[in-house]
Amino acid sequence: MGQRLTQIATRTGDDGTTGLGDGTRVAKDHLRVQAMGDVDELNSNIGVLLAEPLPDDVRELLVVIQHELFNLGGELSIPGFELLKAEAVLRLDEALADYNATLPKLQEFILPAGSRSAAIAHVCRTVARRAERAVAALNHVEPLRPAPRQYLNRLSDLLFVLARVLNRANLDGRGGDDVYWKSERLARGAE
Length: 191
What we know:
By secondary structure, the chain is mainly alpha-helical.
């Protein structure tokens, strides 16, 4: 991979460009930089989630995900480079199936609420969806491998399921169950 950072304030970005891992410079609003930034923001939000009380298995999974997101960011920073492994997508598929199997079927749409950790997991989910859209937009201009899009798609689904798991874990006493949307349309139909 490219050079490791030895200093942070290089001032090379003062002209509105940033360096990629292969040494090329692109505009800071380049689609590749946008995708890298969204993946970085997602990883940072998962770091916030990790600062909360969590079940040990969820914590261990999120730490692995942080490393995989760093790999994804590295892959995005070097055009044509492959760093995110196919096993990473499979790991998310397995975790999604395992955690989803422990949950009751949804009765209605749920709100991004409940315990603090569940709410933060929902924030992570929405950032994962944005990162997925950014990677999809980049793929229209510069074709990418399918793994980055697949990973972000599965991860957003997993974060939704983990939010439900975290509400049930209720480690902060503010959760306990899903917070269901009270649909006016459905309420009228029940009258």
